[in-house]
Amino acid sequence: MSAHANYIGRFAPSPTGPLHLGSLAAALGSFLDAKVHQGQWLLRIEDIDEGRCDAASVEHIVHTLKRHGLQWQSEVWVQSQRHAVYQAALKQLQDKNLTYPCACTRKEIDEANSHRAPGENRIYPGTCRHGMPVAREARAIRFRCPAEPVQWHDHRLGQFSDDLNTSSGDFVLKRGDGFWAYHLVVVVDDLASQVTHIVRGEDLTDTTARQIALWQALQSGAHENHFTPPPAYWHLPVILAADGQKLSKQTGALAVPEHDPVPNLNTVWQHFGLGKIKATAASQWLELATPVWANYRSAQAAR
Ligand code: GLU
Q1: What separation in Å is there between the alpha carbon of 130 and the centre of ligand 1?
Q2: For the segment 7-61, what is each residue's pLDDT rounded down to a tens digit?
Q3: How far apart are CA 292 and CA 255, in angstroms?
Q4: No. of H helices and E strands in the chain?
Q5: What's the 3-state SS for 225-259?
Q6: Fewest CB within 10 angstroms: 25, 36, 111, 157, which?
């Protein structure tokens, strides 16, 4: 077995804007974690929602990662080129009777959730689970959530038991407008690229149970020897804007300045509570940071 067969990590940005400090933190964390394990680190461009993504952002992300010494192995995975693979995965789930067509409109789902406080998760009420109402047409394809809670462990946040029936309900795999939903494409790609470790921002923590459920569903029926266990997860604290909002294009997050990488790396580092590293080049900075990250990893382990 090659050294990196034990650890394959990835950074999977959505190119809806230039790389900002929040995404640099996820990139750096996942990169160093792969380096600590002498693993492989992959780059995947999550441009599946073509209306929100643009080529200039892809270019900025790729260029900025390189400027910061964050070099990935093998080809860049590009989701917009993988429609046929997602279609095949959907077919697999359909053949296992784990999906169903749904006619519900957003308004109908909102009405079913009208008793919930604003900001609370909206749960799909299961209206079409056993068949669409007569004379209605399918708008989306949903996943049948497992009856049992999804159990999973986060390196920093500890143990979770998430009952999807009460936290999201059956969720969408393919939207009414033909777009793939985020959960399906993430899981199909993580599985196809044999990702073993996911290190990403904690804003994605509550997507994990849905992704694990899909991971297991895609492999249900596989012989024990062919079953790939879900990846290990580590959700990092996210860098927030001064007003406490998540950094994003929508909150006006600034692009990481490209000309001087070491101060950017130190800014992210300090956000993790780690001391400044003196280095003249990004490559030297990353070498010095690697043993520090190994200690940080141990210190962050949930007890
Ligand atoms: N594309 C997602 C984002 O940029 C991240 C997906 C993931 O790391 O699982 O928020």
Answers
A1: 32
A2: 999 999 999 999 998 899 999 999 999 999 999 999 999 999 888 899 999 999 9
A3: 26
A4: 9, 10
A5: HHCCCCCEEEEECCCECCCCCECCCCCCCCECCCC
A6: 111
Q: In what order do the strands lie in the sheet with 99-102?
A: 99-102, 140-143, 172-174
Report the residue among 11, 78, 186, 195 best suited for mutation to probe ligand 1: largest number of ligand atoms under 8 A from its CB. Answer: 186
Ligand 1 center to 258 CA (angstroms): 22
Q: Whose CA is nearest to atom 8 of ligand 1?
A: 12
Is the CB of residue 124 less than 8 Å from the CB of residue 141? no
End-to-end CA distance of the chain: 31
Query: What is the per-residue pLDDT across 78-89, written as a single tens digit (0 to 9) for each?
Result: 999 999 999 999
User: Is the shortest distance between the CB of 196 and ligand 1 below 6 Å?
Assistant: no
CA gap 303, 295 in Å, rounded: 15
Rounded to two decimals, what is the model's pTM? 0.93
Which one of 3.40.50.620, 3.40.640.10, 3.30.1360.120, 3.65.10.20 gives the CATH number of domain 8-81+194-201+231-300? 3.40.50.620
| Domain chopping of the chain, boundaries | 8-81+194-201+231-300
